[in-house]
Write a structure and sequence with these properties.
Elements (H helix, E strand, L loop, with lengths): L4 E2 L2 E4 L3 H12 L4 E4 L4 H6 L5 E2 L1 H9 L4 H6 L1 E3 L2 E5 L2 E5 L1 H4 L5 E3 L2 H14 L3 E3 L3 E6 L7 E6 L2 E6 L2 E4 L6 H4 L7 E16 L9 E4 L5 E5 L5 E8 L9 H11 L13 E15 L2 E2 L2 E3 L5 E2 L7 H22 L3 H4 L1 H23 L6 H16 L1 H12 L5
Helix pairs in contact: 1-6, 1-9, 9-11, 12-13
Amino acid sequence: MTAPARTQVGIVGAGPAGLLLSHLLHLEGIDSIVLEARTREHCETRVRAGVLEHGTAQMLDDAGVGARMRREGLVHRGIVLRFGGRDHRIDLSGLTGGRTILVYAQHEVIKDLIAARLDAGGALVFEAEDVSLHRLDGRAPMIRYRAGGQTREVACDFVAGCDGFHGISRASIPPGILTAYDHHFPFAWLGILARVPPASEELIYARHERGFALLSMRTPEISRLYLQCDAGTDLDPWPDDRVWEELRRRLERGGGWELRDGPIIQKGVTDMRSFVVDPMRHGRLFLAGDAAHIVPPTGAKGLNLAAADVRVLARALAAYYHGRRTDLLDRYSDTCLRRVWKVQRFSWWMTSMLHRGTGGTFADQIQLAELDYVTGSRAASTALAENYVGLPFD
């Protein structure tokens, strides 16, 4: 075993939460190391979310990692709710004082953050094996891992668990500490990435009698589309032709609008669930992002919620190191969870309003009434827009 290394903050996970936290700490003069079980290539190519809230994009700008995002990202000033064969546009920008969303894929954000950390000489360890956390209750936590065939140890002041829902960070907290809130939806999303220009300049959320559909995009040449399907759906009965046929049915609209198909370069099924743990801290371990909470993808909030967590944590750690204040660290979980539950509420509401369930005719009519109200009332449209572009960080 090599001699223990020393850093101020040990970060587990090189997703957007871990990398952004490391960079924000660097800007405050705080040392960190990021440990990631997967390869750098995997982190930089895994296609995930692609919608950035106004505040998230601004945070990346302020951190000096937003130049490529601003050049290549797609600014969206509205979204479309499609039901009854008609479009109803929600003017996000007009209803929120000029705020917008930005379509820029999560793996592109990760590329930008990795480049920034390496340019600054940051400590990034990919393919870290057998990562384990120790002495989380004391003043000297330690992270043990294997890399390059050797077992290594890192002593640190704090540990940030940013390693996702299936990571080791939350699992390292002793039983009885956390309260878990979990909800599984009875449906899933069948998603495709297709090499075809998007058929709409703005995202289309479609409520259809056959089930929900979403038209999104990653670039002007790459479309991202989703279909509501049963939980546990097998992809084998879904060849490409059937996927396109079903998308055309659910996204149907008059007036000559056409959904063109193209080569499908990725296909998968995403479960729909909501999950929150309380508190988001144990001793000197702080959970952030998917390690602490999962939201259904309907409202495009996962990455944005992770960014909000690490913003709070970076400020709390800066207050500790620059002024030996512990009050912000002590309030970390309460501060984050206040926002987490508001985002859970919004994601649950969007999901429930747009997806066909098993409630029968009465539930169907309630959904249609809700959509009619949301698109016909300025107050209701404003509430949707405010949540979609992102609630204030403070």
